[in-house]
Amino acid sequence: MSSSAAPSGLVVLTDRRLARGPLPEVIAAVVGGGVRWVVLREKDLPRAERAALAGELRAILAEAGGTLVVAGPDPLGGDAVHLPAAGPYPPPVVGLVGRSCHDEAELRRLTTEDYVTLSPVWATRTKPGYGPPLLPARLADLIELSPVPALALGGIETPEQVTACVEAGAVGVAVLGGVMRAEDPGAAAATLAESFHEALTPPTVPTEGSSLTARSGHGRPQPPTATTMGEM
């Protein structure tokens, strides 16, 4: 494995057809909501157009200390890719490599990848009929088998689902429709990012004499920042 840190926290996958506005605007909003990892899909675009979009999104993320990962073996001028389970094998030699996996057999094929996505955790509107869904129990089993950090992917749209994925051992949750379809993608991303962070943070039990801040909840953890998340 390379020394590159795996993605963590809330990871957003793009889909310009679902997005309520231009993709750069949507990504700027989710970055404002705490997201530091974005995976560019849009595989149907001509390479030149997709590369230009990658450059635009990469610049938005770079300002916040974030990272753009490109779906497919071509990093489009960057240094991070996310590969499908089908290939290529071996992976290209770039700074960060992720792989989509769905079962034990695919996990066993891993070689130099830095992280995996495990999917679908739940049924997803983006890929109807894709599955069957793993559900949190099976997700936990596969995470235990994985030789690299794992992100949960598929049908994740609520804070409760984020919490279940963290409890299963996921280092991050990858979301597409729950953010792309949102009327306010920044707010949707912030809610899910905060849920992830809170799921990692044991609740504080107020003690006698504890401060008003602790009792009132104003000291709640904030959405992950570039420092806490800067690691598809």
Fold topology:
Elements: E1 9-13, H1 23-32, E2 37-40, H2 47-63, E3 67-71, E4 80-83, E5 96-101, H3 104-108, E6 115-118, H4 135-145, E7 150-153, H5 159-168, E8 172-175, H6 177-180, H7 185-200, H8 212-216, H9 226-229
Parallel strand pairs: 1-2, 1-8, 2-3, 3-4, 4-5, 5-6, 6-7, 7-8
Helix pairs in contact: 1-2, 1-7, 4-5, 5-7
Summarize it.
The protein is of the alpha/beta class and 232 residues long. The chain has helices at residues 23-32, 47-63, 104-108, 135-145, 159-168, 177-180, 185-200, 212-216, 226-229, and strands spanning 9-13, 37-40, 67-71, 80-83, 96-101, 115-118, 150-153, 172-175. Strands 1-2-3-4-5-6-7-8 form an eight-stranded parallel β-barrel, surrounded by four helices.
Keywords:
single chain; 232 residues; alpha/beta; TIM Barrel; eight-stranded parallel β-barrel; 16% strand; globular; disordered C terminus
